[in-house]
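[audit] Reproducing an earlier prediction to check determinism. Same input, same settings, fresh worker. If the tokens differ from the archived copy the diff job will pick it up downstream; this log only records the rerun itself.
[audit] input (347 residues):
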Amino acid sequence: MQVRDQDILLPTTMVGSYPRPNWLTGKVFGEYDEPDFIDYRTKESFTDAVRLCVDDQRRAGIDVICDGQQYFESETNHEYGQVFHFWGHHLKGVKRWGDPIVIELYKKFHAPAIVDSVEWVRPVYGPAADVARFAAGDQPLKIAVQGPLFFAFACTDKHYGDVKPLAMDIAKAFNAEFKNLVSRGVDWIQIHEPLTYYGEEPWFIEVINTAFEGVEAHRIWHICYGNQGGNPGVGEPRGRDMFPFAFEADVDQIHLETMRRGPGDLQYLKGLPSNMNLGVGVIDVKSMVIETPEAVADRLVEASRHVPAERICVSTDCGMLNLKLEHAQLKLAALVEGTRIARERLA
């Protein structure tokens, strides 16, 4: 795979989130009409947390660095509340509290309310990107965010009356945000869209393509099976339903988890378009058991039977924020060592 100007066999990264240090707690960022950070002490604490997260990735030998989503309140049982409100607190047309979210796994959260046309008015992830870009130095940087479709389905709509135009306006706001991230030096941008929840509607792909239109970054679609407190939202395999439908997306990479649920979805990737590569999750983030490097290598070799190894990126199944820090560190080490073994076997 091409990473910047380098050709790397099986480049490594992680999906996005990483455990917070125990001294960073609570809310980090301000809302629509507030400063980026709630106060200077929190800004310093957040900056230190991102630096430690980046340092862990560097020590492990990760190729593409993630910011670690250290703004997630992962010290609580409501860490993913930020998934639903982080965007909404910064976009025009969105108020803070709507009804409880109807998606089963996330019913304990209240959705943002859509009260007017949604528009991008200021950088949302800019502060996180700036801190991570500085910490990552010369290494490629990835920023991961919740996708526009999921945000649209989670919101309480009091304005549009139809989820499609709402999702399209959200996608346009995301597009402005993604272009701003590129201007800040972000190399890879990843959205988390659980197609497994929705089924197949052609306009779903239109929303994703609108969000990424004209964005000069490596564009990734992480097809998420859900991860709330280490619990999946969807239990059964969905590869037969997701592909080839998802191949219509204008993205550079489709990412799937394969370690927790097994390799069953890989058989549906043989028709992966030539302009796409495959992200293979080889670390079970819902388990504290540390994978062996050999198990990681075996899964990558198996994936290469469906998609050429030259088009495979190695990652975690999903975000690691529910793990203890020690477990996350050991799992990253297993990911990198397993990839090294797979490179030797596939070279």
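[audit] rerun output stored. Observation attached for the diff report: The chain has one domain: 2-346.
[audit] end
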